[in-house]
Design a protein that fits this description.
Length: 343
């Protein structure tokens, strides 16, 4: 098999429908109200019923779509387990609903469960002082920052179902038996802390947002952990996971299309960020805030709904260079950190 990325499926599942991607595994999609307008969901035949991998946003529409899926492609058989790859709302949003309404067992990593449950309980009517200071330090456009000061920020509770106590932990090195397949748990990082990927003995990989073919997942810095280094975490995970990758594995990602050619894709993901860091080093020969680095990092202007994700990714890349000792950092008079190469 040639060292290329290949997309085996020419069509995508329509709303409320499913495509069998390999025996015993169904691929479904749920809508998202954003530019990335979908999340991929998978149902694995476990004998007693179904194990669902990731869940979509919790909403009236989400419930209606799931009820259609369960009555249709899932043939009225019960959802007995939910596997959540990471804590982001489009993946964990309906997990608590499955637990409460159907008694499903939730399998996820400890960090994913703790982060999601904490954020689900943390309702904010306006951004916290810490969040405002954080975005100011990132060099957020003053007009956008002023607008955000008095707006309700995104809250997990807006699209994540209440999460009852109790879950089953999965971690690096675990083996999970689902139906006839044995899945090996391998942990990624960077896009989300302790992100689970699952690799079957017969060559199927549940990649979540860690392994996507045609887009690079957001590596963002957030007020919940302002001293983190998600870029370093991401690069380490990609290097480690590529040791398990083979060209023929069928990767089932959290977004976009299933694909083969995982070794090539992991090399692309690694090279993409090394390239961005090299451009950033050159740009930071002169002092700049993270918010001034968009064109250098993304090779285009950023505006509208993309602005927030672009800012936290730019902050992450600048912080990576700072923590690695390549750049110096100081506060500017407007409260933004500016970064400049040493020497």
């Amino acid at each position: 098999m040639s060292e290329t990325i290949h997309y085996p499926f020419e069509t995508i599942p329509a709303e409320g429908e499913a495509i069998e991607v390999t025996p015993g595994i169904l691929w479904m999609r749920l809508p998202l109200p954003m530019k990335l307008d979908h999340v991929n969901i998978y149902a694995l035949d476990n004998g007693a019923g179904w194990t669902v991998v990731d869940t979509g946003f919790y909403s009236k529409r989400g419930i209606a779509i799931w009820e259609t899926l369960m009555a249709g492609p899932l043939q009225g058989r019960p959802v007995t387990q939910v596997v959540v790859t990471h804590h982001h709302p489009d993946h964990i949003g309906m997990a608590g609903w499955f637990q409460t309404e159907y008694g499903a067992e939730l399998l996820t990593t400890r960090t994913a469960w703790l982060m999601a449950r904490m954020l689900r309980l943390d309702e904010q009517k306006v951004p916290s002082p810490e969040a405002i200071a954080f975005y100011m330090q990132g060099g957020m456009d003053p007009d956008i920052l002023e607008q955000r000061r008095n707006e309700r920020p995104f809250n997990f509770g807006d699209c994540v179902a209440p999460m009852p106590q109790g879950y089953t932990r999965i971690q690096e090195g675990d083996r999970v038996q689902i139906g006839a397949r044995t899945w090996h748990v391998r942990i990624g990082n960077g896009h989300a802390p302790e992100h689970a990927t699952l690799w079957s003995d017969d060559g199927v990989v549940l990649g979540g947002d860690q392994l996507i073919a045609s887009i690079s997942p957001n590596l963002g810095l957030y007020p919940t952990e302002p001293g983190a280094d998600p870029v370093s975490d991401w690069l380490e995970a990609c290097e480690r996971l590529k040791d398990h990758a083979t060209p023929e594995q069928l990767v089932l990602p959290g977004h976009k299309l299933p694909f083969t050619g995982l070794p090539v894709r992991l090399r692309q993901l690694i090279d993409n960020h090394h390239g961005a860091l090299a451009r950033l080093k050159e740009f930071l020969a002169e002092p700049h805030s993270a918010g001034e680095c968009f064109v250098t990092l993304f090779k285009r202007e950023i505006s509208g709904g993309e602005y927030g994700l672009a800012l936290v990714e730019a902050m992450a890349h600048c912080q990576h260079l700072f923590l690695a000792g390549h750049v110096e950092r100081r506060l500017r008079e407007d409260g933004a950190y500016i970064y400049q190469m040493k020497g």
